[in-house]
Backbone:
């Protein structure tokens, strides 16, 4: 009996610690995703600035090339420069949108990991109680033959291999199949 209790306690502690470790792992993963979201934010801002700077330089080169060729900025050339600027603005907007999506994805993953950690933390007490309940259940059920448990301290009302088909001593009645002998 003592070994069963010790085993149940050790099992309880192990289950509880496993739940706490799993919750800590989920929290750590959430922090990794938050960090990744911040890195995406920084990277996206840098890339957008670089694209904007390159676009301005390209526009400046186009205008300078037209000017050095003696062509004034008017008509079709103005339209060409404007279209280049629009394309660059769209590229920057697309890069910012991609960054925003990546940041949102990382934040969602962080939130999912936090929810998982919360659920595991909430279930940890049950992980602690489950082996105790299971251990007590096996102690008071057919786990010990002869109808006694905990070293004979309690009389069991349960059917054991020695009294199946006969009277159940602790309750004083016969099971239904005991009357059907042919």
Residues:
């Amino acid at each position: 009996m003592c070994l069963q209790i010790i085993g149940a306690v050790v099992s309880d502690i192990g289950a509880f610690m496993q739940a706490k470790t799993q919750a800590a792992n989920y929290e750590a993963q959430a922090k990794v995703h938050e960090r990744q979201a911040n890195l995406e934010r920084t990277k996206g801002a840098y890339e957008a600035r670089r694209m904007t700077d390159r676009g301005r330089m390209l526009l400046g080169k186009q205008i300078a090339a037209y000017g050095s060729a003696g062509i004034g900025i008017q008509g079709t050339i103005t339209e060409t420069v404007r279209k280049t600027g629009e394309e660059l603005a769209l590229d920057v907007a697309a890069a910012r949108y991609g960054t925003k999506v990546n940041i949102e994805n990382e934040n969602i993953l962080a939130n999912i990991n936090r929810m998982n950690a919360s659920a595991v933390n909430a279930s940890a007490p049950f992980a602690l109680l489950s082996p105790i309940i299971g251990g007590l259940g096996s102690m008071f059920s057919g786990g010990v033959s002869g109808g006694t448990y905990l070293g004979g301290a309690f009389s069991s009302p349960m059917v054991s291999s020695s009294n199946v088909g006969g009277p159940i001593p602790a309750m004083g009645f016969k099971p239904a199949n005991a009357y059907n002998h042919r």
In short: The chain has two helices and two strands. Residues 22 and 120 are 7 Å apart (CA to CA). The two ends are 41 Å apart (CA to CA). The beta strands are 148-149, 154-155.
